[in-house]
């Protein structure tokens, strides 16, 4: 699981490229139907959730100093497959 640092004063974008996942499906034409982002524990703001082709993106802000979070993106495809990718975020001054 990827690990990233975030400063409490930063707003950072996180993106996930699902093109390899879609290509591995063996079903030409499958596409992302829905994308949802979550963060545990709750606290940081999630904004500007977007999708461009096979890439999903979200902005994370207002993390609390010393806290460790798990940011997760879950997608469902047009053919009904689901998948998740997560990052571990640690908030500290940079």
Description:
With 94 residues, the chain is mainly β. It has a single domain, classed as Sandwich (Immunoglobulin-like), CATH 2.60.40. It has one helix at residues 19-23; strands at 3-6, 11-17, 32-40, 45-52, 55-61, 68-77, 82-91. The strands form 2 sheets. A 4-stranded mixed beta sheet has the order 1-7-6-3, with no helix packed on it. A 3-stranded antiparallel beta sheet has the order 2-5-4, with no helix packed on it. The chain is elongated and about 45 Å long. The two termini are 21 Å apart.
What is the highest CATH level, the class?
Answer: Mainly Beta
Low-pLDDT sequence parts? none
Q: Main beta sheet: strand number and arrangement?
A: 4 strands, mixed
The fraction of residues in strands falls at over 45%
Q: Based on Cα principal axes, name the global outline.
A: elongated
Number of domain modules: 1
Strands side by side in the biggest sheet: 1-7-6-3
CATH architecture: Sandwich
Record field, number of beta strands: 7
* Average predicted local confidence, pLDDT: 94
**Radius of gyration over C-alpha positions, nearest whole angstrom:** 14 Å
- Topology pattern, helix = H, strand = E: EEHEEEEE
Q: Report, as a whole number of angstroms, the end-to-end distance.
A: 21 Å
* H/I helix tally: 1
């Amino acid at each position: 699981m990827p690990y990233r640092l975030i400063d409490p004063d930063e707003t950072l974008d996180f993106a996930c490229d699902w093109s390899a996942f879609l290509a591995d499906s063996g079903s030409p034409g499958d596409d992302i139907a829905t994308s949802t982002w979550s963060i545990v524990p709750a606290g940081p703001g999630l904004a500007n959730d977007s999708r461009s082709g096979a890439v999903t993106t979200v902005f994370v802000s207002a993390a609390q100093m010393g806290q460790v979070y798990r940011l997760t993106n879950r997608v469902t495809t047009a053919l009904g497959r689901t998948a998740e990718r997560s990052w571990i975020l640690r908030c500290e001054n940079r």
